[in-house]
Amino acid sequence: MMKRLFLPLVAAFLVASLGLATPSHAGSVLVETDVNIIAPAGTSSDEVQITYTNAPALPITVLPASTVSVTGSSISGNTLSVFYTPIFGNQTLDFTFVAAPPIALLQDHLLGIVGPGPAGLTAQVSTSSIAVPEPASIALLGIGMSGFLAFRRLFKRTLVA
Question: Which of 24, 26, 74, 105 is the most exposed place for a label (fewest CB within 10 A)?
Answer without folding.
Answer: 24
